């Protein structure tokens, strides 16, 4: 796929940006993806402050350069061709946490399991369900992520974002409009940079016990040693009521162990696709299409993807909408 613009035209500006924000040219996205799939990004930047996030967003808008914001890449499928533009990674360099009373203020790059543990040590309950989610807080808030059919939005009090114009804005919980695995922030171009969470008081030992139970169940159910993105297909209330969770539906269709190229439906949990070693984005997309077609023909239900595909032009979409 050809780029809609030439980065050569902005080389001097990109080099100047790289002096202001920690950056890497031609960064292999496979190293920033839990699936270990993806070609090079023209420029990857890792800001240390919220002001630096605003600088990068403003820069990309000024020069009309595609900008992709990521955390740990745990819910993304990068294309083998990489990305023609800037990848803004909110990770360890932007991960400060402050706890006062029953409120936690945390930056977007905070590792979610680490945040859950700190909440537990402070005797704050409500984030137990996030202990096994391998991602960063910004992405979790954006999609109202969680487990056990809970969402982090239940504990959100305020969210700070950088909008498409590079302006820093504070939003209330109500303005975020949280619903199951969704929020008003999705698709808005907003970059979540910081969140205030409100939790309930509880004995740390009781919170720890719930976390250990969650982790034990995950170790039993989910593949941990092979690269994957977590759940591929979205589980909804409607789906649960009519046909059951995606993993069960896919397993009952006889698809466990189905392989295309080096992408395989996990033998351990059918809603996981694992990278056996060297899987490509095309392998994964073809396998997703095969699963959806098989399930549709068998029970008439259209599975929709939770995982997002990122095109070389920086477009993000549910993976089942991508064309191979």
SSE order, one letter for each helix or strand:
HEEHEEEEEHEHEEHEEHHHEEEHEE
**What is the CATH domain class of the largest domain?**
Alpha Beta
- The proportion of strand residues reads 15-25%
Q: How would a crystallographer describe the biggest sheet? A: 5 strands, antiparallel
Average pLDDT rating: 92
Radius of gyration: 20 Å
Number of helices: 9
Q: How many separate structural domains?
A: 3
CATH-defined architecture of the largest domain: 2-Layer Sandwich
Shape: globular
**Gap from first CA to last CA:** 12 Å
pLDDT under 50 segments (min length 5)? Answer: none
Reported by name, the CATH topology of the largest domain is Uridine Diphospho-n-acetylenolpyruvylglucosamine Reductase, domain 3
Describe this structure in words.
With 324 residues, the chain is of the alpha+beta class. 29% of the residues lie in helices and 23% in strands. The chain contains 9 helices and 17 strands. The strands form 5 sheets. Strands 6-7-11-9-10 form a 5-stranded antiparallel sheet. It has a 4-stranded mixed sheet with strand order 1-2-5-3. A 3-stranded mixed sheet has the order 4-16-17, with no helix packed on it. A hairpin with a 2-residue loop joins strand 6 (97-100) and strand 7 (103-107).
